[in-house]
Amino acid sequence: MTLATAGEVTGDVAERLARLTPIVAALRAEDPSAERERILQHDAFAELRRTGVLSLRVPKRYGGPGGSTRDVLSAVIHIASGSSNLAQALRPHFGFAERLLSNRATESERVEWFPKINAGLVFGNAITDAKGRAPGSSDTSVLPDADGVLRLNGHKFYSTGTLYADVIAVSASDSRGNDVQVIVPTDRAGVELFDDWDGFGQRTTASGATRFTDVEIAPIEVTTVSDGNHLGHSTTFLQLYLAAVAAGIAVAVRNDAVEYVQTRARPAAHSLADRAAEDPFVLHAVGEIGAAAAAAEALVLSAADSLDALVDNGSQGDQAALADAAVVVAQAQLVAERLTLDAAQRLFDTGGASATSRKLNLDRHWRNTRTVASHNPLDYKAHVVGNYLVNGATPPANGYF
């Protein structure tokens, strides 16, 4: 495996987060053209790796800075305000680190993978099969060959962040029909990566198809997963991560709305003001966008505190506590994503037709949010919340809560 590690990264959580500021500023300047021309931002990704932010969640006992869920999602919101694509590409990486803190992981897995994450190892994933009744169906298998060597075979049509990653967390079935996760280096023989994601949003998340053909797998590379019958806090974290990306987009919308009104917007011919920056209706639109961005971020970070409390209390196996956390996150996701969708379309109320310029590419915010929000139907989030509040029904343990 060829690993472009970050090298020796020092600094506490605050120092690592502070290193993001110039990178996010550069991302914000480059994002309109990179998204428009569909350019993967490998250099920016390498800069992020060097900040040490990608190992924030590694506990101190494994050599890391011991950051919280709030710290991670604060970083995600900040990165997404510059490029939601790059922030989305990191979801499987932070998700794998969070899974290691759950009761679904073993201590041997923590000892194996946390030091590697701390050294700079970056995870992508390959979860969604090209076939099956539902996206979570797995036609990918890891089975012993005639010599007893484990071999991975399958085709995933969407693989988040794999074109940036060093290793891929692959969902598969073993010889007993159990759901497992296989960790495979991206450069191993039999692994093929494709940059073919064709969605109208989140176009540069490095998330194309992946094909595995007789890929040799070591036993240590097969990790434990849920039995599918119980909630787990790491899947709840992954849902909150989506809301964090949306919140970051809302911040980007706010920033672009302010800049556009200050530097480009012209008032309508029948405006009540001589300048767009003094037009009450334009200022009203910017104010609503600003409120939506602030609310989305506050919702995500408040829900992150709930997950931190659950982990800090050692309640990862408490199904009642997990159900409550899943509902808190579902509520945050439901509202934050809808707030961002509204803010992204409201942006065009700050200017005329010139705001639709392809050069500005302001429509990417709505397209990206719509794509993020399409991961999981928001109406089902509302149903689960209502069913929990009225009937005490536990959210389904299917990875979407």
UniProtKB/TrEMBL annotation:
Q: Name one Pfam family in it.
A: Acyl-CoA_dh_N
Q: What are the recorded Gene Ontology BP terms? A: L-leucine catabolic process
Task: Domain (Acyl-CoA dehydrogenase/oxidase N-terminal): give its ranges.
Answer: 34-120
Keyword Oxidoreductase applies: yes
Q: Known InterPro entries for this protein? A: Acyl-CoA_DH_C (IPR013107), Acyl-CoA_Oxase/DH_mid-dom_sf (IPR046373), AcylCo_DH-like_C (IPR036250), AcylCoA_DH/ox_N (IPR013786), AcylCoA_DH/ox_N_sf (IPR037069), AcylCoA_DH/oxidase_NM_dom_sf (IPR009100)
Domain (Acyl-CoA dehydrogenase C-terminal): residue spans on this chain: 241-377
- Tell me yes or no: is Hydrolase among this UniProt entry's keywords: no
* Keywords carried by this UniProt record: Oxidoreductase
What superkingdom does the record give? Bacteria
Molecular functions per Gene Ontology:
3-methylbutanoyl-CoA dehydrogenase activity; flavin adenine dinucleotide binding
* Protein name, entry field: Acyl-CoA dehydrogenase
* Organism encoding this protein: Mycolicibacterium iranicum
